[in-house]
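Extended Data, panel c. Modelled sequence:
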Amino acid sequence: MNKSLVWLASFPKSGNTWLRIFLSNYLVNDVAPVSLNDITRIAHGDSNAALYRRILPDLERRSEIEILRARGALLATIAGNGAGINLIKTHNVNGRHLGMPLIPRHLTKSAIYIVRNPLDVTLSYARHFGIDPEQAARSMASVGNRTKADSDSVPQYLGSWAENVRSWACHPPFPVCVLKYEDMLLDPEASFATALTHLGVPVDNERLIRAIEHSRFERVAQQEAEQGFLERPRRAERFFAVGKSRQWDGVLPGKLVDTIRRHHAEVMGALGY
Protein backbone atom coordinates (compact mmCIF):
# COMPACT_ATOMS: atom_id res chain seq x y z
CA MET A 1 0.00 0.00 0.00
CA ASN A 2 1.24 3.48 -0.85
CA LYS A 3 2.31 5.44 2.25
CA SER A 4 1.19 8.82 0.98
CA LEU A 5 -0.83 10.28 3.86
CA VAL A 6 0.75 13.32 5.50
CA TRP A 7 -1.25 14.41 8.53
CA LEU A 8 -1.72 18.06 9.45
CA ALA A 9 -2.55 17.30 13.06
CA SER A 10 -3.34 19.24 16.21
CA PHE A 11 -5.64 19.47 19.17
CA PRO A 12 -8.50 21.81 18.16
CA LYS A 13 -7.77 25.56 18.20
CA SER A 14 -4.01 25.18 18.03
CA GLY A 15 -3.19 26.66 14.61
CA ASN A 16 -4.14 23.91 12.16
CA THR A 17 -6.27 26.24 10.02
CA TRP A 18 -3.50 28.83 9.92
CA LEU A 19 -1.06 26.21 8.59
CA ARG A 20 -3.54 25.13 5.91
CA ILE A 21 -4.17 28.74 4.86
CA PHE A 22 -0.43 29.29 4.54
CA LEU A 23 0.12 26.09 2.55
CA SER A 24 -2.77 26.93 0.23
CA ASN A 25 -1.33 30.36 -0.50
CA TYR A 26 2.21 29.04 -0.92
CA LEU A 27 1.19 26.26 -3.30
CA VAL A 28 -1.21 28.41 -5.35
CA ASN A 29 1.33 31.29 -5.37
CA ASP A 30 -1.05 34.02 -6.51
CA VAL A 31 -0.81 37.77 -6.01
CA ALA A 32 -4.26 37.63 -4.37
CA PRO A 33 -4.99 35.57 -1.25
CA VAL A 34 -6.67 32.19 -1.66
CA SER A 35 -10.30 32.25 -0.50
CA LEU A 36 -10.73 30.77 2.96
CA ASN A 37 -13.36 28.40 1.62
CA ASP A 38 -10.93 26.97 -0.93
CA ILE A 39 -8.32 25.73 1.56
CA THR A 40 -9.98 22.31 1.70
CA ARG A 41 -8.63 21.73 -1.80
CA ILE A 42 -5.14 21.10 -0.44
CA ALA A 43 -6.11 18.93 2.53
CA HIS A 44 -8.97 16.52 3.12
CA GLY A 45 -10.55 16.71 6.58
CA ASP A 46 -10.75 13.26 8.15
CA SER A 47 -14.08 14.09 9.84
CA ASN A 48 -15.84 15.42 6.73
CA ALA A 49 -19.19 13.59 6.62
CA ALA A 50 -19.55 14.21 2.87
CA LEU A 51 -16.51 11.99 2.24
CA TYR A 52 -17.92 9.19 4.40
CA ARG A 53 -21.25 9.31 2.56
CA ARG A 54 -19.43 8.19 -0.59
CA ILE A 55 -19.00 4.85 1.19
CA LEU A 56 -22.01 4.99 3.52
CA PRO A 57 -24.85 6.96 1.86
CA ASP A 58 -27.00 6.26 4.93
CA LEU A 59 -24.27 7.51 7.26
CA GLU A 60 -26.65 8.80 9.94
CA ARG A 61 -28.08 5.31 10.48
CA ARG A 62 -24.75 3.52 10.77
CA SER A 63 -23.08 2.39 13.98
CA GLU A 64 -19.86 3.79 15.32
CA ILE A 65 -17.86 0.70 14.35
CA GLU A 66 -19.26 0.83 10.81
CA ILE A 67 -18.17 4.45 10.51
CA LEU A 68 -14.70 3.55 11.78
CA ARG A 69 -14.45 0.76 9.19
CA ALA A 70 -15.53 3.24 6.52
CA ARG A 71 -12.78 5.56 7.78
CA GLY A 72 -10.18 2.87 7.08
CA ALA A 73 -11.58 2.27 3.60
CA LEU A 74 -11.73 5.99 2.87
CA LEU A 75 -8.14 6.61 3.96
CA ALA A 76 -6.95 3.61 1.92
CA THR A 77 -8.69 5.01 -1.15
CA ILE A 78 -7.04 8.41 -0.68
CA ALA A 79 -3.62 6.86 -0.06
CA GLY A 80 -3.93 4.79 -3.24
CA ASN A 81 -4.86 7.65 -5.57
CA GLY A 82 -1.39 7.79 -7.12
CA ALA A 83 -0.28 11.08 -5.55
CA GLY A 84 3.06 11.20 -3.79
CA ILE A 85 1.56 13.15 -0.88
CA ASN A 86 -2.02 13.44 0.34
CA LEU A 87 -2.49 16.04 3.07
CA ILE A 88 -5.08 15.11 5.69
CA LYS A 89 -6.26 17.46 8.44
CA THR A 90 -7.00 15.78 11.76
CA HIS A 91 -7.70 16.53 15.40
CA ASN A 92 -7.87 12.85 16.31
CA VAL A 93 -5.50 11.35 18.81
CA ASN A 94 -2.86 9.12 17.23
CA GLY A 95 -4.28 5.95 18.72
CA ARG A 96 -7.10 3.44 18.48
CA HIS A 97 -10.83 3.49 19.12
CA LEU A 98 -12.93 0.33 19.46
CA GLY A 99 -9.78 -1.55 18.53
CA MET A 100 -9.35 0.25 15.20
CA PRO A 101 -6.44 2.59 14.36
CA LEU A 102 -7.46 6.19 13.84
CA ILE A 103 -4.15 6.99 12.12
CA PRO A 104 -3.20 3.86 10.13
CA ARG A 105 0.57 3.69 10.07
CA HIS A 106 0.66 1.46 6.97
CA LEU A 107 -0.80 4.38 4.97
CA THR A 108 1.12 7.20 6.67
CA LYS A 109 4.19 8.91 5.25
CA SER A 110 4.64 11.56 7.97
CA ALA A 111 2.89 14.32 9.92
CA ILE A 112 3.13 17.94 10.95
CA TYR A 113 1.85 18.43 14.49
CA ILE A 114 1.00 21.89 15.82
CA VAL A 115 0.95 22.42 19.56
CA ARG A 116 -0.25 25.46 21.52
CA ASN A 117 -0.23 26.40 25.20
CA PRO A 118 -3.33 24.72 26.68
CA LEU A 119 -4.11 27.85 28.69
CA ASP A 120 -4.71 29.72 25.43
CA VAL A 121 -6.36 26.69 23.85
CA THR A 122 -8.88 26.64 26.70
CA LEU A 123 -10.21 30.08 25.79
CA SER A 124 -10.33 29.39 22.05
CA TYR A 125 -11.87 25.95 22.61
CA ALA A 126 -14.58 27.48 24.81
CA ARG A 127 -15.46 30.09 22.17
CA HIS A 128 -15.40 27.50 19.39
CA PHE A 129 -17.74 25.02 21.09
CA GLY A 130 -19.97 27.60 22.80
CA ILE A 131 -19.10 26.57 26.37
CA ASP A 132 -17.47 28.33 29.31
CA PRO A 133 -13.73 28.02 30.07
CA GLU A 134 -14.36 25.73 33.05
CA GLN A 135 -16.26 23.27 30.84
CA ALA A 136 -13.56 23.57 28.20
CA ALA A 137 -10.85 22.77 30.76
CA ARG A 138 -12.77 19.70 31.95
CA SER A 139 -13.17 18.42 28.40
CA MET A 140 -9.49 19.02 27.65
CA ALA A 141 -8.51 16.99 30.72
CA SER A 142 -10.70 13.99 29.81
CA VAL A 143 -9.15 11.01 28.01
CA GLY A 144 -12.62 10.25 26.64
CA ASN A 145 -12.95 13.70 25.09
CA ARG A 146 -14.61 13.53 21.68
CA THR A 147 -16.81 15.61 19.43
CA LYS A 148 -20.37 14.69 18.54
CA ALA A 149 -21.45 13.73 15.05
CA ASP A 150 -23.59 16.19 13.11
CA SER A 151 -24.69 16.65 9.51
CA ASP A 152 -21.22 17.92 8.56
CA SER A 153 -18.89 15.74 10.63
CA VAL A 154 -18.34 12.28 12.02
CA PRO A 155 -17.08 12.02 15.62
CA GLN A 156 -13.51 13.06 16.37
CA TYR A 157 -11.66 11.27 19.18
CA LEU A 158 -9.53 14.03 20.69
CA GLY A 159 -8.51 12.57 24.01
CA SER A 160 -7.12 14.99 26.56
CA TRP A 161 -4.83 17.80 25.45
CA ALA A 162 -1.79 16.07 26.99
CA GLU A 163 -2.76 12.68 25.55
CA ASN A 164 -3.21 14.19 22.08
CA VAL A 165 0.20 15.86 22.21
CA ARG A 166 1.99 12.77 23.51
CA SER A 167 0.40 10.52 20.90
CA TRP A 168 1.82 12.60 18.07
CA ALA A 169 5.01 14.10 19.46
CA CYS A 170 6.49 11.29 21.59
CA HIS A 171 8.14 8.47 19.64
CA PRO A 172 5.61 8.09 16.79
CA PRO A 173 6.15 5.27 14.26
CA PHE A 174 6.63 7.78 11.41
CA PRO A 175 8.42 11.14 11.01
CA VAL A 176 6.66 14.04 12.74
CA CYS A 177 7.56 17.73 12.46
CA VAL A 178 6.39 19.50 15.64
CA LEU A 179 5.60 23.22 15.35
CA LYS A 180 4.77 25.41 18.34
CA TYR A 181 2.04 27.97 17.70
CA GLU A 182 4.01 30.51 19.71
CA ASP A 183 7.05 30.05 17.44
CA MET A 184 4.80 30.46 14.40
CA LEU A 185 3.78 33.86 15.80
CA LEU A 186 7.31 34.94 16.72
CA ASP A 187 9.09 33.75 13.57
CA PRO A 188 6.63 32.69 10.88
CA GLU A 189 9.32 32.60 8.19
CA ALA A 190 11.36 29.97 10.05
CA SER A 191 8.34 27.94 11.19
CA PHE A 192 6.63 27.75 7.82
CA ALA A 193 9.93 27.10 6.02
CA THR A 194 10.40 24.14 8.38
CA ALA A 195 6.94 22.86 7.44
CA LEU A 196 7.67 23.17 3.72
CA THR A 197 11.02 21.40 4.09
CA HIS A 198 9.33 18.56 5.96
CA LEU A 199 6.88 18.20 3.06
CA GLY A 200 9.73 18.19 0.54
CA VAL A 201 8.58 21.48 -1.00
CA PRO A 202 11.39 23.86 -2.09
CA VAL A 203 11.47 27.10 -0.09
CA ASP A 204 11.41 30.27 -2.17
CA ASN A 205 11.85 33.31 0.10
CA GLU A 206 9.73 35.75 -1.94
CA ARG A 207 6.94 33.22 -2.26
CA LEU A 208 7.23 32.38 1.45
CA ILE A 209 6.86 36.00 2.55
CA ARG A 210 3.88 36.56 0.23
CA ALA A 211 2.09 33.45 1.53
CA ILE A 212 2.71 34.54 5.12
CA GLU A 213 1.30 37.99 4.34
CA HIS A 214 -1.79 36.42 2.75
CA SER A 215 -2.35 34.30 5.86
CA ARG A 216 -1.92 37.05 8.47
CA PHE A 217 -4.59 36.94 11.17
CA GLU A 218 -5.96 40.38 10.32
CA ARG A 219 -6.30 39.47 6.66
CA VAL A 220 -8.05 36.13 7.19
CA ALA A 221 -10.35 37.67 9.84
CA GLN A 222 -11.34 40.27 7.27
CA GLN A 223 -11.96 37.54 4.70
CA GLU A 224 -14.20 35.73 7.16
CA ALA A 225 -16.16 38.93 7.86
CA GLU A 226 -16.65 39.56 4.13
CA GLN A 227 -17.11 36.02 2.78
CA GLY A 228 -17.94 33.80 5.74
CA PHE A 229 -16.04 30.61 6.56
CA LEU A 230 -17.50 27.15 6.08
CA GLU A 231 -15.52 25.74 9.02
CA ARG A 232 -17.01 28.18 11.53
CA PRO A 233 -19.18 26.18 13.94
CA ARG A 234 -22.78 27.28 14.23
CA ARG A 235 -22.31 28.09 17.93
CA ALA A 236 -19.40 30.49 17.36
CA GLU A 237 -19.81 34.13 16.39
CA ARG A 238 -16.62 33.93 14.34
CA PHE A 239 -13.79 31.47 13.70
CA PHE A 240 -10.86 33.90 13.85
CA ALA A 241 -11.24 35.60 17.22
CA VAL A 242 -7.86 36.61 18.71
CA GLY A 243 -4.84 34.84 17.20
CA LYS A 244 -2.37 35.81 19.92
CA SER A 245 -0.34 34.06 22.60
CA ARG A 246 -0.87 34.55 26.35
CA GLN A 247 -4.46 35.66 25.79
CA TRP A 248 -5.28 33.67 28.92
CA ASP A 249 -3.22 35.96 31.16
CA GLY A 250 -5.57 38.09 33.25
CA VAL A 251 -8.63 36.41 31.73
CA LEU A 252 -8.67 32.87 33.14
CA PRO A 253 -9.27 32.71 36.92
CA GLY A 254 -6.17 31.80 38.90
CA LYS A 255 -7.71 28.60 40.28
CA LEU A 256 -8.55 27.43 36.76
CA VAL A 257 -5.02 28.19 35.59
CA ASP A 258 -3.67 26.07 38.45
CA THR A 259 -6.07 23.24 37.57
CA ILE A 260 -5.04 23.25 33.90
CA ARG A 261 -1.36 23.29 34.82
CA ARG A 262 -1.89 20.37 37.23
CA HIS A 263 -3.75 18.27 34.64
CA HIS A 264 -1.12 18.75 31.94
CA ALA A 265 1.98 19.45 34.02
CA GLU A 266 4.35 16.89 32.49
CA VAL A 267 3.68 17.78 28.86
CA MET A 268 3.51 21.52 29.52
CA GLY A 269 6.86 21.34 31.30
CA ALA A 270 8.47 19.41 28.45
CA LEU A 271 7.30 22.06 25.98
CA GLY A 272 8.32 25.03 28.09
CA TYR A 273 4.78 26.09 28.94
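The radius of gyration is 18 Å. This feature is highlighted in the accompanying rendering.
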